[in-house]
Amino acid sequence: MTDENKNSPEVKTSIIGGKAKVAPRKRFWTGGKIVFFILVLAILGGSGYYGYTQYGPKNEGLAEIPTYEMRPTNMEITVTEQGTLKSLRSQPIKAEFGDRCKIEWIIPEEAKVKEGDVVLRFDTQDLQKQIDDFEVKLRENEAELVRAKEDNDIAEA
Q1: CA–CA gap between residue 45 and residue 64 (Å, rounded)
Q2: CA distance 113 to 78
Q3: Which of 48, 80, 128, 145 has the smallest CB count inside 10 Å?
Q4: What is the SS3 assignment for 53-70?
């Protein structure tokens, strides 16, 4: 065997006892092709940039945004808007002692409350009159009951 035979690949053929030499595989990306490819990309990129700068959007139609230089200071931000707020967990407030009742006092708006705090007070004058009337009727009925028991005791005796 010679030096040529050692470096080149050999393939067995259908020829009895013979060997055929195979040509080495050619490289696709050679130095010249790489340089040409880079030049084509550079020309395309340059022409694209030139076209964008010449025919692309212009800044003439844009409005200038007004700006103001700020100095550190305390700034009060207030929002005044009309509307209503609805509580997530609201509790209905109703009087359990009658349909007609007047509110004597109510807690100011936006006051923070805790459980057990008084939020409103009803006028109790009308209720006190009703309580007094019922107490008078109760005393009269108790006195009448005592008289009825005495009459019953006299009748039994």
Answers
A1: 31
A2: 24
A3: 80
A4: HHHCCCCCCCCCCCCCCC
